[in-house]
Amino acid sequence: MNYRVAFAPEAVKDFRNLSANTRAEVRDAVNRHLMHEPTRLSRSRIKRLRGTRKPQYRLRVGDVRVFYDVHADRVEVLAIVEKSKAAEWLERTGEFDEESSAG
To answer: With contact defined as beta carbons under 8 Å apart, do 24 and 95 qualify?
Structure first.
């Protein structure tokens, strides 16, 4: 099954701010992983995020993290963030499950 990939406005802006090499790497990874098997977990590439409703997944592409949700036949890329800023982005933007945030 092929998934349709849509970029949120923030993700489009993030993508445009990447260097040309990194943009190419992210484009290739999105085409390879998110269009075909966005929920297939791997130790080094795709991770299902625990304790969050949004984003659901994270794709690692070198020093960049692609945060996304999967809906039926569509993948929504929410943001593309440098690894060093990923935790901050998640804290600021992520929607957490009730039991995870109580603590």
So the answer is: no
% helix, strand, coil for the chain, step of 5: 35, 35, 30
Instruction: Give per-residue pLDDT as tens, 30-41.
Output: 999 999 999 999
Range list of H helices, 1-103: 9-16, 20-29, 83-93, 98-101
Query: In the numeric block, which tokens belong to residue 93?
Result: 């933007």
| Category of 15 on φ-ψ map: left (φ > 0), alpha (ψ -120 to 50) or beta | alpha
Picking from 57, 38, 35, the residue whose alpha carbon sits closest to that of residue 47 is 57
Q: Domain 4-92 falls in which CATH fold?
A: YaeB-like fold (3.30.2310)
